[in-house]
Amino acid sequence: MGAPRVTAQITRRWVLVAAGTAAIVGAGAVTLPATASAAPEDLRARILAGLPPHEGYAESTGRLGLPEIPALEQVTALFTSVTRLRVRYVGPEAWRVDELTPAGERDTYRIGGREYVWDFGANQLTVVEGETPVRLPRPADLVPSELARRLVSLTRADPVAEIAARRVAGIDAAGFRVSPADPDTTVGRIDVWCDPASGLPLRVEVAARGQADPLLFTEFREVALTTPEITTPTAPPGVGAVTAQAADLAGALRQLDAAPPPARLAGRDLVPVGGQLPGVGVYGTGVSGFVLVPASRGIADRVIDGAAAAGGAEFEVPVGRAAAVTTPLLSVVARGGIRRGGVLVAGTVAPGVLQQAVRELPGRRA
Questions:
Q1: How far apart are CA 92 and CA 13, in angstroms?
Q2: What pLDDT, on the 0 to 100 scale, is given for residue 299?
Q3: pTM
Q4: Residue 112, domain member (yes or no)
Q5: Residue 235 domain-assigned (yes or no)
Q6: Mean pLDDT throughout 44-55?
Q7: Fewest Cβ atoms nearer than 10 Å: which of 19, 189, 256, 300?
Q8: pLDDT band at residue 67 using 50, 70 and 90 as cut-offs
Q9: Number of domains, the chain
């Protein structure tokens, strides 16, 4: 008998909540003597060429200080708290990442061209069909090897330099630093430590421009360079099983009749991402880009109303009302009070860039 279809906020690829959701961290593992060394360009090239099979346990800690955004509470939690992850990785089409929580775990599988989500707390297995080019961040994106791959891909044209080796998960890890060149980005450095033998990224730190301490820290605590077995999950007797269509960022914020994104905002061109994403626009490239996401008027207005409590403030726009909430690394701007709903704009760029983008948006008064 066919499984019923439901809507699920699960999708395929990541846009770094929008070209920019990096944040987090504190003091991670203790630095121990290590002498590993490798050419930074070689390490970057090996990461871009592909990750080797591996399995292990990792932790990511976030201290970005983001406010809760309606409908995106689970996303902001990824960057404001500790995320514990068990990882099994064979290749880009065969992997499993389990998010471990006090209540149990939530497991995401990629195998046979499909994704599966097993939610222990809900006692439900979801089979995800289809893909979308823009989706919300998820715990699997914070695995050190995966986060390194994504960030290195976004900054492949930026300069790199060797940094001191350190001991990570019992391995003498060679390190390199990426220093984004665009003056508009808030990202000051991205540090990656890799196993020099396999090229596997073991630890990643992201720091804001002008700050010494990183705002993103994720590392393996245990890791083995083996090829794990990934099997297709099945629902045990008595467990719910559903089939869901991959949902995109716009769907998460419930504004599906949004106007098309402008061709250019704040001096940045709209980047083609493919797929049918009502109103969603990605502008600029690398870590100096940002994303425009339509949101219901209710959600946008709640973000604006709560901006002051999160250390933000309202600012003038030609139409409607707007507010900005900024952290050293991530900036978020909301515009509401307009007839066709509202928008959220976010990225690892200076807040002035996002404010200018919102001022350039067309809109009609309510």
A1: 12
A2: 85
A3: 0.84
A4: yes
A5: no
A6: 97
A7: 256
A8: low
A9: 2
Note whether 151 and 293 are same-domain residues: no
Query: Are 171 and 304 members of one domain?
Result: no
- What token pair was written down for 162? 């060797």
8-state DSSP, 313: E
Strand ranges (DSSP E) for 112-170? Answer: 114-119, 124-129, 160-168
Torsion angle (degrees, nearest 10) of CA 154, 156, 226, 204: -60
Q: What is the mean pLDDT of residues 191-200?
A: 97
Q: How big is the chain, counted in residues?
A: 366
pLDDT > 70: percent of the chain: 83
Residue type, 80: T
Instruction: Supply the range of the domain harboring residue 83.
Output: 5-224
Q: Which residues contact 203 (CB under 8 A, 6 or more apart)?
A: 28, 29, 144, 166, 168, 173, 191, 192, 193, 217, 218, 219, 220
Question: ∠ at Cα 87 (72, 190), nearest 5°?
Answer: 65
Q: Residue 244 has which token pair?
A: 């869901």
Structure tokens at 176: 């390199």
**Is 239 part of any domain?**
no
54-58, 207-211, 235-239: range with lowest mean pLDDT: 235-239
Check: CB of residue 354 under 8 Å from CB of residue 315: no
Contact criterion met (CB below 8 Å) for 249 and 277: yes
